[in-house]
């Protein structure tokens, strides 16, 4: 016997927003595997919500930290919009039971899949933006992210750890490193290392050891992708 879906009123109460167009919320909760989805899923709303989230968080940070330099604001922004943060927000909203999802995906536990939850967090934000406008969406984001907004920053990660975290947050495989070239005498070698991440162009790093070269390559990729900035992580 199929499990009965909970009343949407429960989720509406957690969100603190009542939709004028209830179909937008339904679309925001519809996975591509859902039966009778009529070709609709949350993917387009997720695309929109991602942009709204970034703008709203940027504005909230600008307001909350009036003396913070650009580098600190950028680091806080990157922390708040990471997929893990979005997944945590969706868990707090308890959106899992409300998802419209295929039977196979439901049985395999996809209702609690962090990647899906992160997507749905953004799709709900996109739906609220379309239904109520930017100010309403910003208020929703402010309520949902208030604790994270003012939380102390996490300790700075080394480049390899940060790159692995960045890849995992996007559902990508673990970065792969390889020695391209080794030069110099045995007592003073120099290594040229390449790092590859699926869907991202390779980057190279140089160093007196493989570890240092790997860190340099990871740093270069993080800088190129805009995850890190020259101001805060440009040193080698």
By DSSP (H or I, 4+ residues per run), the number of helices equals 11
Q: How would you sum up the global shape?
A: globular
Q: How can the largest sheet be summarized?
A: 3 strands, antiparallel
CATH homologous superfamily placement of the largest domain = Ribonuclease III domain
Portion in helices: 55-70%
Termini separation (Å)? 60 Å
CATH T-level topology of the largest domain: Ribonuclease iii, N-terminal Endonuclease Domain, Chain A
What series of H and E elements makes up the topology? HHHHHHHHHEEEHH
Detail the poorly predicted runs.
none
Q: What is the residue-averaged pLDDT?
A: 87
Radius of gyration using CA atoms only: 21 Å
What is the number of domains?
2
Name the CATH architecture of the largest domain: Orthogonal Bundle
The CATH C-level name of the largest domain is: Mainly Alpha
Question: Structural class of the helix and strand makeup?
Answer: mainly alpha
Regarding quaternary structure, how should these chains be classified?
single chain
β-strand number: 3
SS strand fraction: 5-15%
Strand order of the largest sheet: 1-2-3
């Amino acid at each position: 016997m199929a499990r009965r879906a909970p009343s949407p009123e429960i989720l509406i109460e957690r969100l603190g927003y009542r939709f004028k167009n209830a179909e937008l919320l339904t679309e925001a909760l519809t996975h591509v595997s859902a039966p009778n989805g009529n070709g609709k899923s949350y993917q387009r709303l997720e695309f929109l919500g991602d942009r709204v989230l970034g703008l709203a968080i940027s504005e909230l940070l600008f307001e909350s930290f009036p003396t913070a330099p650009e580098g600190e604001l950028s680091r806080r922004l990157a922390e708040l919009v990471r997929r893990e943060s979005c997944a945590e927000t969706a868990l707090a909203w308890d959106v899992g039971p409300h998802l419209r999802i295929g039977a196979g995906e439901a049985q395999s536990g996809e209702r609690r899949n962090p990647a899906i939850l992160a997507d749905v967090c953004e799709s709900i934000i996109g739906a609220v933006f379309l239904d109520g406008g930017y100010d309403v969406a910003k208020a929703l984001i402010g309520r949902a992210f208030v604790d994270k907004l003012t939380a102390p920053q996490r300790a700075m990660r080394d480049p390899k750890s940060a790159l692995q975290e960045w890849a995992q947050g996007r559902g990508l495989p673990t970065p792969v490193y390889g020695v391209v070239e080794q030069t110099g005498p045995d007592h003073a070698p120099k290594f040229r290392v390449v790092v590859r991440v699926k869907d991202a162009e390779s980057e190279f790093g140089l160093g007196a050891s493989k570890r240092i070269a790997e860190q340099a390559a990871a740093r270069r990729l993080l800088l190129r992708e805009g995850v890190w900035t020259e101001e805060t992580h440009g040193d080698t």
